[in-house]
Amino acid sequence: MWPVHTPPPDSDSSSTRVVDFALLRRLAPPARVIQVGAGRGFGPLHQWRQWSVPRALFIDADETRLGWTQAPIESSPDWQVVHALIGERDEDTLYHQATNPDEDGLVPIELLATLWPNLRATLSETRRASRLDRLLTEQGWTVNDTPDATTWGLIDCFPALPVLRSAGEQLTRWSLLGLRVLLQPVAGLSEDNELSAISAFLEPLGYRGVFVIDSHHPAVGHAIFLRDWFTVLQPRLETLQSALTSATQARDTLQAELTALGQARDAQAQLAAERQQQIDRLTQAKAALEQEKATLASAHAEQVQRLESLQAELASATQARDTLQAELTALG
Question: How far is Cα 82 from Cα 67, in angstroms, rounded to an integer?
């Protein structure tokens, strides 16, 4: 069950709403506010204007109701005003005006008369509706998903659900929603106005209803939704954790491969060193053999020279003997 803030008869309803919004300010302090159906500048969804919010965008289909914005915009240069009719699609649609200008909008006045029997239609005309996401982009209001820039989306008009749908991806980056809703079905009015249908749409996006601010009509109120960022981000965190685990495993595998390559490199280096040592030893042995060969060659040359000398001496001795023999024969 949604908590409904209904003040007791002797209490001040506006002070109760201030307490509610003071709590919301602590839970999700707004850095940006987008207010669709800004109207004449009063109501429970205007409490934030007392907080010096850095940036704000007021949107209303009736330019004549926005005169009150001149003063706050002069003191807050990053506050903007846009005259536009927001719809689920960019298309021509009927815009209905009533004897109570606060009920002007896309809902036929005769259907709203179920809630307010004295309400009467004054004019219905074709106007061009714009999607909220396109309008925000045109105004430079693309909101990034950053935790330090809390965005509030306030829709103070009927029906709220088409406006939410028209926000597209922008809706997934906001932190708080304040919506004018029907607290119960009303004959003739679309469920796009009903809290139950809006809650069903927002729940998959991570929004959780926190309370409803009542109004002077028991069937009408303002529902406040907060985005449960933990629930929204948990799948993303799990995905990141899985990616981190995979990256860690890949890193460990790569480290093991690098270690193995390092060990192989060290083994190759050791083998290369051993082979170099063998080459050095063989080189030294070769040098020794070359030296020994040179020594033997020198000795051989000396022996050959000695032999030739001895042979010459032998030849001289033989000749001398033959001469002496001849002389002896002659004397005999």
Answer: 12
